[in-house]
């Protein structure tokens, strides 16, 4: 008897031979219907009803899916999901993963809890991709914060977006810690106002609008500016101020010089009261250098020359017609010829009075070669052409 025959006999004595023909004849698969929800090719049939059946078939056939059914969830990632259930202790969020993300309600703020409404979409950050109990733990508060930070970083690229914020702390004479919807930012002291603050602690715990300016990748810090927001408000504030010329107002002194006092008012505007326009008692204190930054002072708007140049006074305002507004209405097409008077001569040109105290510049480049500037004298009459008038900057450009 051969060795193979002996082995077969030993197997048959210990374990009955498996009858494949009988198994195939009675296999339940023969009577099962293929899963109609599985998309196949080449006539393939998939009998599995498991939720991952399509993904498994596609993987075996090398078919790439637009949206993978299975993906890894890592700590620190932020996903957008749909709120599934909410109770006192836990909330569950469906992020289209094979498992729900669990949110511990005891670690969420009241603001975050108020956003947890079943069926609503929300951002959640993965705190732990696998806890000891075997589930994924997330934080809605951190997810909201990550979403706000993303918006802030995008606003730095586009510019011009202001966020409501609260000043939560400060570095004396250095800057402020500012919170934007849960995101901590830094505002240098020089960007806390239009002018240098007389009282550095005055803005602590206040709310203000700030504009994100830059992001420090190394420190993970967003730099914001309240000054940029105020500067954007100036043009409209100045326009509104035009109807309040001569009206009594109150502001704060930001500094002083020999010729006058600088005053900040209406949140973002700065003007100057000339020494000659101060009340007698204030003039005495100003001359003695007793007027200090931060001091409140009353005044009236005397004249608006430009957005950056506003003159104030403490004396009675006598309304006068602005010659610049008059000249803008008088000359509407250029060039226009006028007869003026030479007021002064410079190396770079001639200043000519064209009437009503308005002086324009005849640049030396506009003088023909046949005319020597040294041959001209003050108070001489001269015929010039007005080529352009800039009322805002109060400039008149002349040529011959």
Task: Give the H and E element order.
Answer: HHHEEEHEEHEEEEEHEEEHEEHEEEEE
Could you name the ranges where pLDDT drops below 50 across 5 or more consecutive residues?
A: none
Arithmetic mean pLDDT: 83
Give the % helix: 10-25%
**What is the structural class?**
alpha+beta
Structural domain count: 5
What is the molecular shape? elongated
Gyration radius, in Å: 40 Å
The CATH architecture term of the largest domain is Beta Barrel
Q: Characterize the main sheet.
A: 5 strands, mixed, barrel
Number of strands: 20
> Quick one: CATH class of the largest domain?
Mainly Beta
Q: Number of helical runs?
A: 8
What does this structure look like?
- It is a single chain.
- This protein is α+β, with helices and mostly antiparallel strands.
- It folds into five domains: 32-61, no CATH class; 78-146, OB fold (Dihydrolipoamide Acetyltransferase, E2P) (Beta Barrel); 159-230, Nucleic acid-binding proteins (OB fold (Dihydrolipoamide Acetyltransferase, E2P)), CATH 2.40.50.140; 245-313, OB fold (Dihydrolipoamide Acetyltransferase, E2P) (Beta Barrel), CATH 2.40.50.140; 325-399, Beta Barrel (OB fold (Dihydrolipoamide Acetyltransferase, E2P)).
- Helices cover 21% and strands 35% of the residues.
- It has eight helices and 20 strands.
- The protein has a five-stranded mixed beta barrel with strand order 1-2-3-5-4.
- The radius of gyration is 40 Å and the shape is elongated.
- The model has no long low-confidence stretch (mean pLDDT 83).
């Amino acid at each position: 008897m051969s060795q193979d025959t002996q082995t077969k006999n030993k197997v048959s004595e210990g374990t009955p031979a498996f009858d494949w023909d009988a198994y195939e004849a009675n296999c339940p698969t023969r009577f099962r219907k293929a899963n109609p929800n599985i998309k196949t090719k080449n006539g393939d049939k998939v009998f599995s009803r498991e939720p991952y059946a399509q993904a498994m078939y596609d993987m075996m056939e090398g078919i790439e899916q637009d949206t993978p059914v299975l993906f890894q969830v890592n700590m620190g990632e932020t996903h957008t999901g749909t709120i599934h259930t909410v109770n006192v202790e836990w909330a569950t969020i469906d992020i289209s993963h094979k498992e729900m993300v669990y949110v511990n309600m005891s670690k969420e703020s009241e603001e975050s809890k108020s956003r947890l409404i079943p069926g609503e979409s929300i951002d959640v950050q993965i705190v732990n991709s696998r806890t000891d109990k075997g589930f994924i733990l997330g934080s809605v508060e951190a997810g909201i914060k990550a979403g706000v930070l993303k918006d802030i970083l995008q606003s730095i690229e586009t510019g011009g977006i202001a966020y409501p914020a609260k000043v939560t702390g400060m570095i004396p004479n250095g800057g402020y810690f500012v919170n934007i919807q849960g995101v901590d930012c830094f505002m240098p002291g020089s960007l806390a106002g239009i002018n240098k603050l007389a009282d550095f602690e005055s803005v602590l715990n206040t709310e203000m609008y700030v504009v994100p300016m830059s992001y420090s990748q190394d420190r993970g810090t967003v730099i914001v500016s309240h000054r940029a927001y105020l500067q954007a408000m100036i043009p409209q504030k100045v326009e509104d101020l035009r109807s309040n010329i001569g009206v009594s107002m109150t502001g704060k002194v930001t500094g002083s010089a020999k010729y006058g006092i600088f005053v900040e008012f209406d949140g973002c505007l700065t003007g100057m009261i000339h020494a000659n326009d101060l009340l007698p008692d204030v003039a005495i204190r100003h001359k003695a250098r007793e007027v200090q930054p931060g001091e409140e002072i009353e005044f009236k708007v005397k004249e608006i020359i430009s957005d950056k140049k506003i003159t104030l006074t403490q004396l009675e305002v006598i309304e006068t017609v602005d010659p610049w507004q008059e000249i803008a209405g008088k000359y509407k097409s250029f060039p226009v010829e006028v007869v003026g008077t030479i007021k002064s001569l410079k190396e770079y040109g001639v200043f000519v009075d064209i009437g009503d105290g308005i002086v324009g510049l005849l640049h030396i480049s506009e003088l023909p070669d046949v005319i020597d500037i040294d041959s001209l004298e003050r108070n001489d009459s001269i015929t010039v052409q007005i080529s352009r008038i800039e009322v805002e900057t109060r400039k008149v450009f002349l040529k011959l």
